[in-house]
Amino acid sequence: MTLAIAGFILSALLAIAYGAAFHFLVGGSLPTIIVYLAASAIGFIIGHFVGRFLGIDTFRLGAVYLLTASIGSWTLLVFVRWFLNPPPE
Asked: What is the number of structural domains in the chain?
């Protein structure tokens, strides 16, 4: 298994775990878990590339920038949650 494939599998598993954990914490229906999983994956990818661009090597595992990718994933999950359920006016 090459390093790129291992990094992709690690990233996919973490993004799925983050999306599922978020859905478990906040609740919701079947369509919302699909939205959370997609948002988690997109946020993970964005966070990874931000970490790579800025050169933040803290908690880097192989080719995956875990710290910034995790922050990106959770940030997008919170934003999507807020977007789906805006606060009352």
From this structure: 1
Q: Which domain, by its residues, includes 48?
A: 3-84
Does 89 reside within a domain? no
Question: Which region holds residue 47: left if phi is over 0, alpha if psi is between -120 and 50, else beta?
Answer: alpha
What is the block-wise mean pLDDT of the chain (89 residues), using blocks of 10 residues? 83 96 92 95 96 90 92 97 83
Question: Which pTM value belongs to this model?
Answer: 0.90
Output the six-digit token pair for 71.
Answer: 């922050």
To 5 degrees, how large is the angle CA 38–CA 39–CA 45?
90
Q: Is 56 left (phi over 0), alpha (psi -120 to 50) or beta?
A: beta
